[in-house]
Amino acid sequence: MTPVIALVGRPNVGKSTLFNQMTRSRDALVADFPGLTRDRKYGEGSYEGQRFIVIDTGGLTGDEQGLDLEMARQSMQAVEEADIVLFLVDGRAGLTAGDELIADSLRRSGKQAHLVVNKTDGQDPDIAASDFYSLGFESTFLIAASHNRGIRSMLEILLPSEEEREEEDRADRYPGIRIGVVGRPNVGKSTLVNRMLGEERVVVYDMPGTTRDSVYIPYERQGSQYTLIDTAGVRRRKNVSEVVEKFSIIKTLQAIDDAHVVILVIDAREGLVDQDLHLIGFVLDAGRSLVIAVNKWDGMDPEDRVRVKEQVQRRLDFLDYADKHYISALHGSGVGVMYESVQACYESAMAKWPTNRLTAILQDAIAQHQPPMVHGRRIKLRYAHQGGSNPPVLVVHGNQVDSLPGAYKRYLENTFRKVLKVTGSPIRFEFKSGENPFAGKVDRLTPRQKVKKDNDEKQGRRPKKKRQKSLKR
C-alpha cells in the first residue's frame, strides 16, 4: 500500500517548499506570501524504491472565517485521508498560539502526526526546536526545506523499509505469531509440533528424514493466533546425498526467514553438537528471535543433566539473551512454558520505539562512556532512530562512524538491550554519517586564481604548503 503524507501548519511555514522537495517538482507555488496555497494539492514521490503520495494544504490559524474556513476544511480533509501527518512549524518565528491550536486539533483527530521544525538553517537546530518540545509530539524532525537538508533522514524514518513491506505480505498469508521449529534430524521436532498443537497433526516416526517439506499450520491458543512451521531436519553438508533432501534444507532456511520466532530443538542425550551451532548461525544471520529447547530430558540421570546444562551454558554463552528450556516433547513437560518465551521474543522483535527515546538512551550511553578519539578528533554520535523490525534495526547518525571500534558497538548493543528489555531477539545497528553539504559541488576558482594557477603550471611550480610553527618547550 502506498503511504499518504499530509503537510499541515500555519501559513508561510514552508509546506509548499517541502512538497516540491519531496516530489522533486515545482508543482506547488512558492513565495514569501502567506495564504498562497488554498486547495489541496497532490503529488507523488519516492525514496529508496518506496513510493508515497504527498498532500499540500492551505495554512491553518485556528480561528478561520469565510474563505479561510473553507481552506481549513480542505486541510482537515487531507488529514483524514493521510496515513502520516507532518505538522510544520517555523523554527525562526518560534512557538505561536496558532501552533498550539493546530496541535490540539491533530491530537483529537487520532492520526499519526509528527512535528517538523522548518527553517533551521543559519541557527542552532536544537535551540530552534526547544520551544516546540512542549507540544508533546513523540517524534520531531529538524529540516531546512529550502536547502533540502534533513528531508532524506526524515523519510528514512517515516517510510517502511523493504523488510517491513515483506513482513506485511507474510502477515497476510500466515496470521499471528509464526513459530519455526528447526533442528537436526530425529531430535523430536514433529513430536514437539504435535504437542504444541494438542493433536497428531504431522507424521512422527523413529527414523531420520520423516519430514520432507516445511508444513505451515495456523491455529489459535487462548485467544491468540499462531502459525507453527514444522521443518525438515538439517544434516551436515557431507551427509546430504539425495536431491529431495537438498530441497528440504532450502525449504527449512526459507521457513526461518518467514518465522518471527525460531525454536531450535536439541537432543539432550547427544548433547550440543557443531551442527546445532551452524543452525544457530543461520537463525542469527536471518535476524530471527531464538528459543533453545533441549528435548528428551525425561529419563536422564542427574549427572548427565548437570553435564548437558554446563555444556549448553558454556558453548552458548554468546546467547545469554535467549531463553533455554529443558523439555520432553513426548510427555509434554516444560512445553507450555515455552509460549511465554515465544510471546516475549515476538514483542521484542516487533517493538516500535520513538526517536526521542532512542536518542535519549544514546546520549545517556555516551555520557557514561564516550566514543574514542580518531586522528585527534572525537567520534560524535548525534541521534538514533528505528529503521525496521524483526529484527529491530537501530540507525545511529554521527561523524566518523566508520572508525567506531567493534567493542564500542557491542557496548551500545548491550546498553540498548538492557534499557529496552529486548529478549531473545538480536539487535542490528546501522551507523550513518551526516550529509555532506559540499558533496558533488565543483571548487570554482576566481579569475585571479585561474591566472595564478596557469602561471604556476607553466613555470612548473608546486602549490605552497602552509608551514607548521614549531612548538618551543
From TrEMBL:
Show the InterPro entries listed in the entry. Answer: AAA+_ATPase, G_ENGA, GTP-bd, GTPase_Der, KH_dom-like, KH_dom-like_a/b, P-loop_NTPase, Small_GTP-bd
- Superkingdom of origin: Bacteria
Task: Summarize the subunit comment.
Answer: Associates with the 50S ribosomal subunit.
Kindly list the positions annotated as binding GTP 2.
183-190, 230-234, 295-298
Q: Which family does it belong to?
A: Belongs to the TRAFAC class TrmE-Era-EngA-EngB-Septin-like GTPase superfamily. EngA (Der) GTPase family.
Annotated keywords: GTP-binding, Nucleotide-binding, Repeat, Ribosome biogenesis
- Which GO biological process entries does UniProt record here? ribosome biogenesis
| Name of encoding gene | der
Organism of origin: Marinobacter maroccanus
Keyword Lipid metabolism assigned: no
Q: Which PANTHER family match?
A: GTPASE DER (PTHR43834:SF6)
The record's annotation in Pfam families points to:
KH_dom-like, MMR_HSR1
Query: What would be an example GO MF term here?
Result: GTP binding
Which stretches make up the EngA-type G domain?
Answer: 3-166, 177-350
PROSITE patterns on file:
G_ENGA
Q: Where is the composition biased (Basic and acidic residues)?
A: 441-460
Under the heading SMART domains, the entry gives: AAA (SM00382)
The role this protein plays is: GTPase that plays an essential role in the late steps of ribosome biogenesis.
Q: Where is this region: Disordered?
A: 433-473
Composition bias (Basic residues) maps to: 461-473
Q: What is this protein called?
A: GTPase Der
